[in-house]
Amino acid sequence: MKTASVYDVQHNFSRVLSWVAAGESVVIRRHRVPVARLIPAKKERPRAKMPDFMARLREDYGNHVAPDAQHILDGLREDRY
Hints:
YefM-like fold
C-alpha cells in the first residue's frame, strides 16, 4: 500500500491516480496522520440482457393473438420501451 501526503495529491494527482489505476491502494496523510484511503474501483459487471419475450411469443404462436389478450400484449410492448 502506497502513501501520499495531501500536498502530493494536490500537486501530483495524475501520479497518485496512476497508482490507483494500477490496482494499488493509496493512504492519504495530513501531518503524517492517515485521513483517507483511495482504493481502485471495482469493475462493473455488464447488465444482463433482457429476454425478448415478444420474439418468443411470435416464434411459438406466429401472429395469431387471441382477441382478449391484445391488451396484455400492448402493455408488454409499452413496458419494454
